[in-house]
Amino acid sequence: MRLRISTPSRLHFGIIDMRGDLGRLHGSAGVAIKTPRLTLQIEEADEIIITGTRSDRAQQIIEQVLSDHKVEGGVHLDIQSDIPEHMGFGSGTQLTIALGIALNRIFGLGMTYKNIVVGQGRSRRSGIGTHTFLHGGFIVDGGHAINAPETIPPLIHRSDVPDDWLFVVCTPDINSGFSGAKETTAFKNLEPPPVEMIAKVSRLVLMQMIPSIVERDITLFGDAMTKLDTIFGDYWATMQGGTYSHPRIEECVNHLLQNGVYGAGQSSWGPALYGLVEGNSQARELADEMDQFLNEGQNTGVVFITGADNKGAQIY
Questions:
Q1: Same domain, yes or no: 224 and 141
Q2: Residue 115: C-alpha distances to residues 56, 64, 110, 276 (Å)
Q3: Which residues pair with 155 in a beta bridge?
Q4: How many domains, the chain?
Q5: Which end of the chain is flanked by fewer CB atoms within 10 Å, N or C?
Q6: Buried/exposed code over 197-210 (b: 16+ C-beta within 10 A; e: otherwise)
Q7: pLDDT tens across 85-128, in order?
Q8: pLDDT digit string (tens) for 152-185?
């Protein structure tokens, strides 16, 4: 059996509840995007042979799954395009689920999505990566029950994103972002946010963000995006050094807002940041402006335009 899998990446808008005093923890909002993508081809082989990027990480995942199910033999994996690691695009979850599904089908392992996701330690805080893989679109998840952390956060809301809502995405060349053990430590070291802040975030998501995308109101949706990013950015300030994880990200987000985007923010821990626009003309004009801004003086970075991915992962 030979499989080809193509997955979206994601922009993570923010977490909803870091207190847990209602019996649930986290919950989050985000969107699947068409670019960058993970595209791979995989088939059964006598041994594990991997070509392309992230070969070490892919080998770890494959070896663990095959070992857990006492499978002899291997696969030939060709990673043809990839999502950059530790940039705020959710690359780890996409690779993990894609390989888990592929191995499950090739060897008939009988794994559920929960087996694949939770077994590899994904979705411990946010379910956005898992649900964007499965469904695409704009996602809100309901976090974990305090007494059941080893689960996939339930899907609370999903909407298609209009085709003419586009994201201008910038990745400045800076050292930024948290992942793995560093991210876990960051979550453990912060005091729970005040009830008033969680109430504000919850109301923003329920009464502005979700209704505005259902009604295709880009102005209100973009405003909610910016507010959500800023509220939790201020909460994380003691850990990441400011509202954003690097001063250059703050400069770029402010420049986006000054140049007419409907909303802007930092994806996850960054360094990826985004601005929401309407239509190709505005997107191209803004991308040109941000390319100049990102690369002025000694600064460097990359800018690209992408739409939302409303399909999720494609398996052929």
A1: no
A2: 22, 13, 9, 35
A3: 141
A4: 2
A5: C
A6: bbeebeebbeebbb
A7: 999 999 999 999 999 999 999 999 999 988 898 877 665 668 99
A8: 999 999 999 999 999 999 999 998 555 555 555 6
Please state, in angstroms and rounded to a whole number, the distance separating the CA atoms of residues 24 and 21.
7
Spatial distance between the Cα atoms of 222 and 11, rounded to a whole number of angstroms: 14
Range of the domain at 149: 2-159
Domain with residue 54: its CATH number is 3.30.230.10
Q: Point out the domain boundary residue: 159, 191, 224.
A: 159
In this structure, are 135 and 229 located in the same domain?
Answer: no
In the chain, the amino acid numbered 94 is Q
Q: Greatest CA span in the chain, whole angstroms?
A: 58
User: Does 280 share its domain with 185?
Assistant: yes
Q: Residue 61: exposed, middle, or buried by beta-carbon count in 10 A (0-12, 13-18, 19+)?
A: buried
